[in-house]
Design brief:
This protein has an 8-stranded antiparallel β-barrel with strand order 1-2-3-4-5-6-8-9. The chain is 14% helix and 49% strand. It has a single domain, classed as Lipocalin (Beta Barrel). The protein contains 2 helices and 9 strands; from the N terminus they run αβαββββββββ. Strand 5 and strand 6 form a beta hairpin.
């Protein structure tokens, strides 16, 4: 049992030591004029390889007033430097509430990126609409 635990600790510490993480957020214009405009959708991601990133982000507040969290994944497109395809889904009822999108990362300064993107839900709402939205995001990679 000690060997299994030691192997798991060494493996996880090696992954963390050589890993690249990123902090992401999306500007939310619906929030009141304070820091919530940037921190309402804050998330953390793990860069698996040069093309694929996965993470967890704070989602919308549900009907009970509790915070929710969304899983997200990003695949960098090799045909164009900085372009990516993204997928985001809540941890509860995720398959019904997924959204996909396209975006572009502009390196502004030392790992700080500006990321305009367009997202669209994968399923229709109660009215039969599937209206997308243009978002403005920031990320920092370290």
């Amino acid at each position: 049992m000690k060997k299994v635990l030691l192997t798991a600790v060494v493996t996880l510490s090696t992954l963390v030591a050589s890993a690249q993480f990123m902090v992401v957020t999306t500007y939310d214009g619906d929030q009141v004029e304070n820091a919530d405009k940037l921190t309402a959708n804050l998330g953390v991601g793990y860069v698996v390889n040069d093309d694929f990133t996965v993470g967890l982000a704070k989602g919308a507040v549900n009907a009970e007033g509790d915070d929710t969290y969304d899983l997200w994944a990003r695949y960098n497109l090799s045909m164009m430097e900085g372009a990516y395809v993204g997928l985001q889904m809540p941890t509860k009822d995720g398959s019904e509430n997924m959204s996909i999108g396209l975006g572009f990362s502009f390196n502004v300064w030392n790992g700080l990126y500006v990321e305009p993107n367009y997202t669209m839900p994968t399923s229709e709402d109660d009215n039969g609409d599937r209206e997308g939205s243009f978002n403005f995001g920031l990320s920092y990679r370290f």
